Amino acid sequence: MPWNPEADVVEVVRGPRKAGGAGGLYRAFGETLRGLKTTFNQLARVGVTTVQYPEEKIPVFPRFRGRHRLHRFEDTGLEKCVGCSLCAAACPADCIRVVAAENTPENRVSAGERYAAVYEINLSRCIFCGYCEIACPFDAITMGHDFELSDYNRSDLIFTKEMLLAEPAERTPLRTEDE
Amino acid sequence: MPRPIREMVTFTLDGREVTAPESTMLVDAALEYGDVEIPVFCYEPKIGPPVGACRMCLVEIEGVPKLQAGCSVPVKDGMIVHTNTPRVKEAQEGVVEFLLINHPLDCPVCDKGGECPLQDKSFGWGSGISRTVEPKRHFEKPLALSPLIAIDRERCIMCYRCVRFSQEVSEDHQLVLQERGADTFVTTFDGHPYVAPFSGNIIELCPVGALTSRPYRFRARPWDIEQAGSICMLCPAQCNVSFTVRDERVLRVLQRDHEGVDNGWLCDKGRFAYQAIHVDERVTEPLIRDGGTLRAVPWELALETAAAALRRAGGRVAALAGGETTNEEGFLLQSLVRDALGSPDVDSRRGGTLPLELHRALVAPALQASVPDLQYAHAVLVLDTEPVDDIPILDLRIRRGVRHQGVRLFVATSRPSSLDDRARGIVRYAPGAGEAFLAALDAALTGEGDVDALAGAAGADADAVRRLADGLRDAGEEVVVLWGERLTAGPRGADAARALLNVAARLGLAGRDGAGLLEVPSAANGRGLREVGVLPNAGPGLCEPSAEGRDADGIAAAAAAGEIAALYLLHTDPLLDQPSRRAWGAALEKASTVIAHAAFLTEGIAEHATVVFPAESHAEKEGTVVHPDGRVQRLRRAIGRQGDVRGEWQVLAELAARLGADPRVLTASMVSQRLFDAVPFYAGLTLDEIGGRGVRWPEREQAGALPTAALGPFALEAPPAAATANGRLRLGAFRSIWAAPEVAASPALSFLRPLQRAELSPADAERLGLRHGERVVVASNGHSVSALVHLRQAAPEGSVFLESGIAEHSAANLDGPLVEVRRA
Fold first, then answer.
1. What number of C-beta contacts closer than 8 Å exist between A and B?
2. Which of A3, A106, A138, B333 is the most exposed place for a label (fewest CB within 10 A)?
3. Between chains, do A138 and B108 touch, taking CB under 8 Å as contact?
4. Taking CB atoms and an 8 Å cutoff, what residues of chain B touch A100?
5. What fold characterizes domain B287-346+525-569+609-705?
6. What percentage of chain B reaches a pLDDT higher than 70?
7. The whole model's pTM is what?
8. Where are any strands of DSSP class E within B513-667?
9. What CATH number should be reported for the domain whose range is B8-84?
10. Interface predicted TM-score (ipTM)
11. Residue B770 carries which DSSP code?
């Protein structure tokens, strides 16, 4: 501890009174050289390379909780989400907004009676806990693998249903079993 | 039958001593006095006695070998009850499992999910594991039970609540259960849509998602919404409601049970007309007339235009306030007109004025009956009002009293009433002959006077009047007279009011607990507006005004004669609300300035208003209103004001300030406080005291501050005889519950929008050669309206009844008393 909070007198440690000299030289370059030692050691090691992010990405684990995905049934193309709002109820960050509407024979969107007319996740608020995925009774929402979510505008981080349903433009590599 | 007096009994509940009133049902006693919840589905005390259909409430009672249904066992002294023994638990789990055998468990798509008693009970008392592998029963779903209600028969657990509501509460006898066993389903008898004034209540009664609201379908989940308690302002019943709000929009209206007001029921208008708050037709910004059309302008310009016009008019200003006006707005309006503009012409009634002492006598605390009195009285007389149209929720209260408390119901109206089949005595008299009828009743009660002649003058059967008098006298001491304000309308309204007070005095209603008069005002806050001084002959607190002004009819005549330059219309369109359309058409045409607060551009506003301020809806208002039985209730804001709407008290205060009489009010509660200070019998009232349940001012100490008035009997001159039909028909006007701009603007309710119909007796129709549903022309003095013939068995011969309060073909187009009906 730099100072004892219970002590009445605090001892002040001052720097050296005299500038320059060998001590000064050491203080200027010593710590730098010590840091560079690690760098040179790594340079000398064979087989270890720097990952060239973002050109190259480290594969994530299969259960990695990244950006959410909404799913469709593969056979019918209907959305799995019925707009039940259970994800919104489970969300501790209150970042999901669902507005449901009714399916009609002319406009059938999901497999149930209702569908999500609006499905928005505010990813700037999301804490990626995965409760929405657990709450979903239809496996309609899952946590995906994308983690590159930075943007220039907060409102661009509100992901709509269309964005969540779409295949990500670039797939995040998944770690294989032996990795 | 008066309220039963109940003794307290002590019984043992799960090893603890609990004291509860005797003959309380075990589930109620356990929950209320013992803090133990026994699960129920079918039990709902609002509906009536228990039926024990669902078997969810099984409990063990010592000394009784089998498990008993707690909902139908009244508590007795010394009873020993166990609610959580293994035997009870097993039975409860069995019942839940049994109820879930055919329940589809489609909770994620079900609108009830999250607020579903079946979910709660399965979670709390079920086993948590389903053993069902067999297929469940299937029905087509979802079906429309009516345009307002969707029914999903797969989800139904056969608790009978909706059927019992229809059979025993609203008594429309439409819903039934068909088929047997697992094939049973709820339906209307012949499959027609369930259309009834109170149908929406079954949505709230349903303990599962079998009956759901179609306008609310899939709009929100219980965790998306907030509830905001307030008062419904669409009719004088002023039911306590709770608005469901999501994203600053009202999505649903639920009941907020108040035994003293609505008993937890709502009519469909109150339940579904919230849609009118969020429609495009609503006026949400100030408008001024510019070259013949109304155009939107900034507030500053609208206020300045209105203030300049009022200034220009000098003292030649008159104001009318409509039903949705709160006490505060009415108070500010009369102070604006009287103090800032120096005009005494302000009114909130229709059809003439009553002397001030009669206004005082009619609200005298000693004569006031409360709403629960209707249920517990010995006899109820429904006088010149049709509760279903005028104050719907009291219709259910009267039916409950008749069914469960043995109330003797008497109906004395000119138009056939829906309560006729529950009544012990019915008197029909000619439209507008209320005074003569009351004089005849008075004569029959006292035994003095010529009952036959008076009944003849009223166009009523003298024997029926005598039987009514005997019935009222024999029923018991506690008699409640539910009378409609239209009784005291018209040039002889004052005499009718005196005759009513005479009858009340003969029956000894004054000062008797559980007896009295209960007025049905023509406007939602009619009583409150009179009490705060929106009357030509009374100031705040029914005090003498500095100068007496003209009543609504007088204002119309004066405006048409050019004596009034500016008209101020607060929540009213005289063309719809006032009895004479032509007089008001001329008045609006002639007035150089018409300033209106309106939510919808109804005919009179759209054509004649020079400045339109957007009116708040009842979900946006704050203030106080007075229930017909004297209960001061509080409106609270549920949502933010839509569009550019401003608080109307602000607008009135701002106008007063611009006209040099600053009322110095900065917040809505300051207006309320000024009002409570100005009205002597509200003295000391605070918004906190009113709270969510309201306060009946006639029960407060300060009620004595109302200036006392004679309560009768009065000497009356002989009433004029009702016009003899003589080939033509007497005209009676009524306003249906659905004749409101809010109903027309609500998409869900627009199918109920009234069309003009001429209600006739079959005998008259036969004489005129008319059939039901035929189009006819009803004419008088060269004016005519078109209508469809509607035959009613109980209609009195020689009269025809037409709807007022509608835009086209309104009864207000015609001059009575006699009209001619002919085929179109």
1. 38
2. A106
3. yes
4. 218-219
5. Rossmann fold (3.40.50)
6. 100
7. 0.91
8. 516-520, 566-570, 593-598, 611-614, 623-626, 631-635
9. 3.10.20.740
10. 0.82
11. -
